[in-house]
Amino acid sequence: MRIYSCHFCSAPVYPSKGITFVRNDAKEFRFCRSKCHKNFKMKRNPRKLKWTKAFRKAAGKEMVVDTTLTFSARRHIPTRYSRDLVAKTLNAMQRVEEIRRRRERVFYRNRMSGNKERQRAADRKLVEENQHLLPPSQRTIPSGLQKETVDTDGMEVDEEMLSEEEEEKVAVKVPRKKQRTEQRMDVD
Ligand SMILES: [Zn+2]
């Protein structure tokens, strides 16, 4: 018995669950639940709905390129039944699943790393920009100079950020080029 994946959200469709729509040209569309079926009938694009796998993959929220994901893909080479092969495959399935889980954990950790710092920086900026909302005793900039200084500060911060970003880009680009040239040299 085969577990299909939902045409809309890519969730597994277990036997006796969901609904199958067969189009005029005999193409099958399997849906895990009525939600997906309804959304399909409304001609919505799964890539634009945040709860689908298609969106999460398109938005870089999940691992897309990985060898563990292609393991269960259907192959066009027919295999003859053999007991050993089945046993081997079952072992491999478990092992691949373990590896995939670990890689996904690493991917998630990398994706979420630096979130705290970014949030803190955003909070600091918010406080700096809205000094007039704070009680005078808690302001870091004196109220008389506030407007001018805040404006200029904001400009300075923006410029600094921009220049830093540019510098980073340059810094990233330069070693890559160097590496490429080195590789070429090696090849030559
Ligand atoms: Zn679904």
UniProtKB/TrEMBL annotation:
Residues 151-168 have a biased composition (Acidic residues). Keywords: Ribosome biogenesis. It holds the Pfam family Ribosomal_L24e. This is Ribosome biogenesis protein RLP24. One of its GO terms (biological process) is assembly of large subunit precursor of preribosome. One of its GO terms (molecular function) is structural constituent of ribosome. Belongs to the eukaryotic ribosomal protein eL24 family. Residues 129-188 are annotated as: Disordered.
